[in-house]
């Protein structure tokens, strides 16, 4: 009977497993294989054999065309903006700020009894708003004659083609934080509803302050949600692409020949759209991105073993 039920279970799972095999597992394996192919042609599948040069080209260690002396410094470069540099800045600036802000707002909302649902709805609205539409609004606010400049009496180019890399990154980080807050607030608010009120009652009897209650009760009991949000936020930040398109609709600031607004995923998309001769470099960059995300995820999981309370 048990063996018969197993067959039924596999039969029910078969459609999902087939779809995952075709659209998830095969592309992952194929991308890994292509990243090691020399002179790969996506149309015919022809290649010149196995090589590590694709990774060397992406990392700027190998010449793009043998003997040309030209190396690609758009993915990683020292002392100037590059895809990896921009992605790391976005990740390590926006993720901590957005997580802390979302946690703070959630705790404040949880302490409001009147109109709590109304305020939660207000904070959640940006999550269901089109990303491109939000980007257009930010572009208007931070435009040369926009509200931000007028409000503070500034004459600064933030998002136009005359903007500096630093100004553009400030607006980009603000935009990403704004769009990331609603989902985090929703998760933290749900977690707060699940905390037993007896803990707060005991803390009140002991005369604990609100700050101490938050640090000793709320945050430790929210640690599973904090871990989940942190990991997914890091993954999302490393894959950032929509924000650059929605806000700037280009890959450069003041110089069209210098792609200083590149992110890693933007770099991959550009290589994919550059023709079949660039596909192996896109695959190599995708594998490098996968490895980076995996390393950071493993580190966070190891740290969480001592910090997360279930």
Arithmetic mean pLDDT:
87
CATH level-4 homologous superfamily of the largest domain? MetI-like
CATH class descriptor name of the largest domain = Mainly Alpha
Which fold name is given in CATH as the topology of the largest domain? MetI-like fold
Question: Separation of termini?
Answer: 37 Å
Number of domains: 2
Give the CA-based shape: globular
Segments where pLDDT lies below 50 for 5+ residues?
none
How do the SSEs run, as a string of H and E? HHHHHHHHHHHHH
Count of alpha and pi helical runs: 13
What does this structure look like?
The longest helix has 33 residues, at 2-34. With 310 residues, the chain is mostly helical. The chain has two domains: 1-34, no CATH class; 83-307, MetI-like (MetI-like fold, Orthogonal Bundle), CATH 1.10.3720. The protein has helices at residues 2-34, 53-58, 83-110, 116-124, 131-141, 147-152, 165-193, 197-205, 210-221, 223-238, 242-247, 264-273, 279-307.
Concise description?
With 310 residues, the protein is mainly alpha-helical. The protein has 13 helices and no strands.
Features:
MetI-like fold, 0% strand, mainly alpha, globular, single chain, 66% helix, 2 domains, 310 residues
What are the SSEs and their pairings?
Elements: H1 2-34, H2 53-58, H3 83-110, H4 116-124, H5 131-141, H6 147-152, H7 165-193, H8 197-205, H9 210-221, H10 223-238, H11 242-247, H12 264-273, H13 279-307
Helix pairs in contact: 1-13, 3-7, 3-10, 3-12, 7-10, 10-13, 12-13
């Amino acid at each position: 009977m048990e063996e018969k039920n197993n067959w039924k279970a596999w039969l029910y799972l078969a459609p999902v497993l087939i779809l995952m095999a075709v659209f998830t597992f095969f592309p992952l394996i194929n991308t890994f294989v292509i990243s090691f192919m020399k002179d790969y042609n996506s149309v015919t599948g022809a290649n010149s054999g196995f090589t590590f040069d694709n990774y060397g080209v992406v990392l700027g260690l190998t010449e793009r065309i043998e003997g040309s002396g030209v190396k690609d410094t758009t993915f990683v470069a020292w002392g100037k903006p590059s895809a990896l540099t921009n992605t790391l800045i976005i990740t390590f600036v926006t993720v901590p700020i957005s997580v802390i802000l979302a946690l703070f707002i959630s705790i404040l909302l949880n302490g409001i009894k009147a109109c709590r649902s109304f305020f939660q709805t207000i904070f959640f609205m940006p999550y269901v708003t089109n990303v491109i539409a939000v980007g257009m609004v930010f572009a208007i606010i931070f435009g040369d004659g926009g509200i931000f400049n007028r409000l503070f009496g500034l004459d600064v180019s933030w998002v136009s083609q005359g903007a500096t890399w630093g100004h553009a990154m400030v607006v980009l980080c603000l935009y990403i934080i704004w769009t990331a807050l609603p989902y985090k607030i929703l998760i933290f608010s749900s977690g707060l509803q699940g905390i037993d009120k007896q803990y707060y009652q005991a803390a009140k009897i002991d005369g604990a302050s609100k700050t101490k209650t938050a640090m000793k009760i709320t945050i430790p009991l929210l640690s599973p949600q904090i871990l989940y949000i942190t990991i997914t936020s890091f993954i999302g930040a490393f894959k950032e692409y929509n924000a650059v398109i929605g806000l700037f609709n280009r890959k450069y600031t003041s110089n069209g020949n210098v792609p200083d607004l590149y992110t890693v995923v933007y770099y991959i998309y550009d290589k994919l759209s550059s023709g079949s001769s660039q596909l192996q470099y896109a695959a190599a960059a995708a594998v490098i991105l996968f490895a980076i995300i995996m390393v950071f995820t493993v580190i966070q999981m190891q740290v969480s073993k001592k910090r997360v309370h279930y």
